[in-house]
Fold this sequence. Notes:
By secondary structure, the chain is an all-alpha fold. It has one domain. The protein has a two-stranded antiparallel sheet with strand order 1-2.
Amino acid sequence: MAWKIGAALAVAAAVAAAAAGYRSHVWHAGYDAAVSDRAARDLGAVVARVQDNAVLSTQQHTINVGITKAKNEELAPVAAVIATRRVRVGHAICSGPAAPAKAESASGGDRADPPGRLVSESVERNFRALTLAVEQDLATGRACQAFIEANGLVP
């Protein structure tokens, strides 16, 4: 009779183990399905975001081209003026009477130029570069401001 009780306990333990194994399998199958579903949704979201970013990139490139074109159109005449004018130091800075400056180029004397002293080539070159850089920044700001106003982004 003891063996019948032992056999019954063994069968009960086997059934309990099988039920626990089946429950674990079902739980893992559900978990795996949930994980793969989440991964598929995440992949779909990433693909959608990449497509949105591509559209935004195209729009931003178009906007940047327009702003750059407006800046360059505004800057072209200013750059031409900066490149042709000679830089002089005025009477107040010279602290002396105006004297004709020596010609630094083969183009002739400075008699037709207004009074004042010409600055050295290196100072003039640096001054022109600085002036052009400032004008470029100002033109960029004005072009951006015009875009903002044109698109109603100003309250």
